[in-house]
Amino acid sequence: MASVAGLRYLTIGQYVPGDSPIHRLDPRTKLVALALLLAAGLATAKLATNLALFLVICALVGLARLPFRYLRSSIQPALPVILVLLALQVLFYPSAHRDPAGAGRMLISWGVLRVSAGGLWAASISLLRLINLLLLFGLLTGTTPTGALTQGLEHLLRPLNALGLPGHELAFVGAIALRFVPILGESLETILQAQASRSVRQEAGTRWRLARNAQRTAALVVPLFVEAYRRAEELSWAMQARCYRGGRGRTHLRTLVFASADYLALGLAACTVAGVILLQRLPLP
Amino acid sequence: MSSGSATSPSAHRRDAAPAYERGIRRIVTAGLLLAITLLMAFTPIGFIPVPTPAGSATIAHIPAIIGGILEGPLVAVIVGLGFGFGSLMSPAVPVKDPLVVVLPRLFIGITAWWVFALLRRANKGVLTAILAVLFVLLLGASYEVSKKILWLGIVVAVASVAITVGLYVWMRREEVLVFSLAVAGVAGSLTNTILVLSAAIWRLPELITPAAALTIGLTQGIPEAIVSAIVVVAVVSALRQIHTRRRGARL
Q: Pairing mode, if any, of strands A113-116 and B47-49?
């Protein structure tokens, strides 16, 4: 029960209003810059490059003037999984290969559990990389309202229309999903409370009782799907009532305009990627 | 939850609806299924305990399967795409290669849709024939294995006899629709496992060897397929008001 109590505070897609230089950027710029920095974050395998990227992201967060609490809440839900993964990586690090010289040194050797310097090193790199990725997504969703995000995504997907693919519809599906994650999370909380008040056992049985655990999950997931379908029904009626006609010929109240700040931001993002690639090539740890 | 229109009318109206209405419904349903996927991928409800070394199986691929079964291949691909991007962002997934994480996910719902479309109109005679072919294939596989490792071949043979008999008995007792739902759930789940692991062998040969992939496939793939079958039957029969032998899902 406690493990899902915070569902409604899931920060995917939560916008923090503000008027910082980052907030004012064009959503297209932010999406492209995020993709670039994400690529940089995925490509790095060294501590130095990840640290550099972390500093850049911290500077961006400072520039966006996002509250510390918001950032903490965008990392916190993922923290248990991250910690377990890191523990696994440290304990079962294959010390025999893929080690830089000297890093295979054992720090603790206790039966099958061995903690090597290389394992700790790899774990700290993964930790930093994961935090970088989470902060990047937090930065994007924190400074961009969902509407602007969809509009930007739709513009970026426009080349797909030439291929006959529904760019607008794809962006719209993503927007609906992001909007409904917290709402369905809240529904899930209600379902859990309703079941708890009727004394349904919330915690899973031992992991050997597979069929029983699956049924318990089904009992939780079925009302969730029913609720989602009910909401889908309501939403599609509402859209029909407002004569939704898809992306063709659609105009926007606010049209997106590229300003000089956007070109500057894109240039800086490209420079960061280039810098990270350069750092990666240098003989750094 | 607030009161509103019931879910059942949508099931009846779906086939008769004009293209315009169907288009909107498809977009909205895909969006909500994707929302459930993200919810499952980012919170503990998407992981259930199983008796394998990893300790938990994911059910985040199930909305894609259900999308395929109920809404067709287009919705399935969209939800699968979203699932792929979700796992790309998720800290629970250590691999961040789009070819491993995103591409295979597109096919989850397609396989489920295809298998379901193939089986739903079949009668029990056809299903028995398919089961017989499957049994022969499994026995052939066990013979091949026994040429290399004798005891493993015998184990596979015994297991395939048990699986076939179990499936046959269950199929005779259950409705064809429920049986095809379960098989579609298994097929979608196995598509996920097999394609992701194949892509991992192809893209990350130094991290995942074929032997390791086989181990992961057996220990993760089979429990996930079983869980997927149970949950898919429960959810779809609740949504389409199909009566299983137990009269709907036990809530």
A: unpaired
